[in-house]
């Protein structure tokens, strides 16, 4: 297809390539970044510029998932990393639906309580307020890093939590002629993308609701980083970078205006910086967009991570979730996965990385190598900082996760 640019085709599965083609018409422009892998209705690591449409499928269930990273004035050698990681895991909630251990307030909550798109208001009490300042499950994390000069960085990755997910499922129902509170059919992985005309009532409502979920996601990441800084006794922050990578923006490309949706893609306009997380054991990076012919073809988009090569079920095995006598869902392994979790934890220890939580489905072998992925992006970005992980906190494998993306 003339209107599709693929970076790193050799390391991208055919399902993802077929899926991005399914998202495009002749007047649209598509991109696959080198970390691309199969998603729901739209590949993760895929960007599409739509002339007249906005893509719910491209934004995904986790509206405004993104990364934030800050550099502190502290030297890692002067920080008691194990103690700090213990406090992070004790004081910040990980996992789906868990309430914040230390509830916080933020102006975004008032916006949700009085949301322009009124159906979102009902999420204030049960989702938005208790989940602000919590981290999801899956590949969402709070990490500590050491840079080239020994400085301590904090990096986080998560999105709009249950608030964003319920917003998405509500619009899926609306797209099928149902009410916002009805349960719509989500369809298969290869279902056509759900697109709204940008000028339609539902399109304008979706843009309004998406933007509010984006504000909530930004507030959540700010809150979590601030909590880690509090645990570290409020050190000075000397650098900060913060981006969504599941979102849609109105932008100009090739002389025309488009709604550009990026799912698992970091915006990388010339001079714009982004934090890209690797696996829990590998070096992450801070990158900066470069102005080049390649980057223009990329719609000024770059990778958001290393990109999966092994599904969660392949890695962890097939599990059945059953309620215990207290009504709590617990996993029971039916078939063994490919990853030996005990060996993975030993590897992390030998690598000098303090691990809290996580599971075999997030093992380094489940992902591509970030350095290889970055190499395929060519002259679209440059690396400003390389960050070695010293502490990793994620939801544990016992955490039930009904959400997608």
Structural commentary:
It is built from eleven helices and 19 strands. The chain is 27% helix and 31% strand. It has helices spanning 14-22, 56-59, 81-91, 107-113, 124-131, 161-175, 201-231, 293-297, 312-316, 341-350, 370-375, and strands spanning 4-6, 29-37, 44-50, 53-55, 66-75, 141-146, 151-158, 195-197, 237-244, 246-253, 256-263, 265-267, 273-276, 284-289, 301-303, 317-323, 329-336, 354-358, 381-396. The radius of gyration is 20 Å and the shape is globular.
The termini sit apart by: 27 Å
Q: Percent of residues in helical segments?
A: 25-40%
> In what range is the share of β-strand residues?
25-35%
- Poorly predicted runs are none
Strand segment count = 19
Which structural class do the helices and strands define?
alpha+beta
Radius of gyration: 20 Å
Instruction: Label the overall shape.
Output: globular
Largest sheet: 8 strands, mixed
The tally of helices reads 11
How would you describe this structure in keywords?
11 helices; 405 residues; 19 strands; 8-stranded mixed beta sheet; alpha+beta
Record the SSE blueprint.
Layout: E1 4-6, H1 14-22, E2 29-37, E3 44-50, E4 53-55, H2 56-59, E5 66-75, H3 81-91, H4 107-113, H5 124-131, E6 141-146, E7 151-158, H6 161-175, E8 195-197, H7 201-231, E9 237-244, E10 246-253, E11 256-263, E12 265-267, E13 273-276, E14 284-289, H8 293-297, E15 301-303, H9 312-316, E16 317-323, E17 329-336, H10 341-350, E18 354-358, H11 370-375, E19 381-396
Parallel strand pairs: 1-2, 18-19
Antiparallel strand pairs: 2-3, 3-11, 4-8, 5-7, 5-9, 6-7, 6-19, 10-11, 12-15, 13-14, 14-19, 16-17
Helix pairs in contact: 4-7, 6-7
